[in-house]
Amino acid sequence: MAQPSADLSSRNPDWWRQAVIYQVYPRSFADADGDGLGDLAGVTAHLDHLAALGVDAVWLSPFYPSELADGGYDIADHRDTDPRLGTLDDFDALVAEAHRLGLKVIVDIVPNHTSHQHPWFQEALAAGPGSPARARYVFRPGKGTRGELPPTDWQSVFGGSAWERVPDGEWYLHLFAREQPDLDWRHEEVREDLLATLRFWSDRGVDGFRVDVAHGLAKDLSEPLRDVGGVGATGEDSLPLVEPGSHPYWDRDEVHAIYRDWRRLLDSYDPPRTAVAEAWVPDERRALYARPDELGQAFNFEYLEAGWGAEELRAVITRSLATARSAGASATWVLSNHDVVRHASRLSLPPGTDLDAWLLSGGTEPPLDPVAALRRARAATLLMLALPGSAYLYQGEELGLPEVADLPAEVLQDPVWQQSGHTRKGRDGCRVPLPWTTTGPSYGFGPGAGWLPQPPSFAAYAAGAQTGAEGSTLELYRAALKLRRKLLEGEELTWAPETVPDVLEFRRTPGWRCLTNLRGTSVPLPLGELLLASEPLTVSGSLPPDTTVWLA
Fold first, then answer.
1. In sequence order, what are the beta bridge partners of 334?
2. How far apart are alpha carbons 258 and 256 in whole angstroms?
3. How many CB atoms lie within 10 A of CB 255?
4. Spatial separation of the C-alpha atoms in residues 472 and 228, rounded to whole Å
5. What number of H helices and E strands is found in the chain?
6. What is the torsion angle, in degrees rounded to the nearest 10, for the CA atoms of residue 378, residue 279, residue 452 and residue 32?
7. Which of 315, 309, 239, 325 is nearest to 281 (CA)?
């Protein structure tokens, strides 16, 4: 069992500014009761792994009651636990053990929608058109002579129309799966209920919240509802084409009044509860969510989406730091999460690769060299951990896990597969259960098989196989996080005035620097004490390709 570490935050309200937060997708982390699903007791049993890793906080993806129409993001009760994952007592035990180990706890808040099994929505269906119960959601009559057409051309992020018709003829809005009806955030009861949810979990000792689809709550529902004509229909990628703040349902200016209400509540706790926005919006808009009187921090997806090139990365890092600075926040950095192809695969695919097509090919078109891909991923991680701000890690990346791209169609559970008409495989490949041991039906994930099959190659990635193994990815992460705690001071970064082309070099206070070689050949290493390297140096002491070093 890991020993309790020094609590980074103690009573410091700014603990999050340069923290390392580890995302747990509970259903895929560890299965304590043997039903094939990861659970809260499984998380608690492995918190010592996270403490030994050296992270500062654990972020739990949804563990609430759900039929798993969208991997747990379809929530039937925002203030309870899914009985398959445990009880509120299990949650309290998790928080207590995390705090004993010096780990903060962050939970997902999903405010844009509920499950269609939520009591409110069931009441709305029974109550009928024009009822107060339906006013909590977005119900509208359809178009056409008999109302047989959707009210607008709005599209679901998962594919197809964002409207679903109910038996009495009305349609309800679902920007994601049809099992996830959108709430109407103009409704006072909706606003008050979410505040009650924030109080509920804060009172149970939660230290912060990750806000799902933070840019989607406010919608222009004035009549007549307007079509978008395909511009920004599914949201994020084409939002820059729309006048900022004017899209009917993404990133509207009115959303910020909601978060100012939340901040007043979060600041009423001592220490204040933190929050981070999942907002897929351009830089200048992201800063609004991260203002100190709103959520305080926002995910930087521009960095996640950047290619493996020195100029592109330098530009993204520079912009990201400036954006965070303008909001009075610290920057955030993330390479993998539960929604994207793992970076141990993604970063080595050729620029412009269609990831949906690559997944549909089972990860064979184009083919990927797993050894070279992991080498690049390790270099990217060490680069990220040297940057000022908060780093968010996704479970299993410390093991070097690649995307499981060849999951057969019959095991897929992501609604994207069905709603896209089998043209997009979805996100199951990054959600495959973790391997803890080199043997067993699920490599230590649980006593039996997991809810998604693991490839035989997972045995070599298991935590048990890597612990204490010199040069392993797990030991690299442990060394990097331990050293990072000692080195971090201030939030400034200074680019080296002159560098070799395709090499990134920057300096941090006090007197250490990071170099990443993104070219195809080795480069000379500047003078300095080698603190850490993502790969061994060449025999001559040069910096090999796809390698990052920290120097004193």
1. 392
2. 5
3. 22
4. 50
5. 16, 15
6. 90
7. 239
- Catalytic (active site) residue 354: no
Single-letter amino acid, residue 332? T
Identify whether 278 is a catalytic site residue: yes
The answer to whether 295 and 262 are in contact (CB under 8 A) is yes
In the sheet that 57-60 helps form, which strands lie side by side, from edge to edge?
A: 274-277, 208-211, 104-109, 57-60, 20-24, 390-394, 332-334
CA atoms within 13 A on the CB side of 294: 23
Q: Which of 184, 278, 398, 505 is catalytic?
A: 278
Owner of token pair 């349902």: 249
Element (H, E) at 275: strand 274-277
- Helix (H) / strand (E) element for 92: namely helix 88-100
- Surface-to-core class of residue 312, CB atoms within 10 Å of its CB (0-12 exposed, 13-18 middle, 19+ buried): middle
Tens of pLDDT, residues 160-193: 899 999 999 999 999 999 999 999 999 999 999 9
289-to-284, 317, 477, 516 alpha-carbon distances in Å? 10, 19, 30, 31
C-alpha distances in angstroms, 503 versus 309, 349, 372, 470, 516? 9, 20, 18, 27, 6
Q: Which of 108, 164, 212, 403 is catalytic?
A: 212
CA distance linking residue 505 with residue 536, whole number of Å: 18
What is this structure's pTM?
Answer: 0.94
pLDDT, one tens digit per residue, over 105-150 is: 999 999 999 999 999 999 999 999 999 999 999 999 999 999 999 9
DSSP character for 432?
Answer: S
Q: How many other CB atoms are there within 10 angstroms of residue 271's CB atom? A: 14
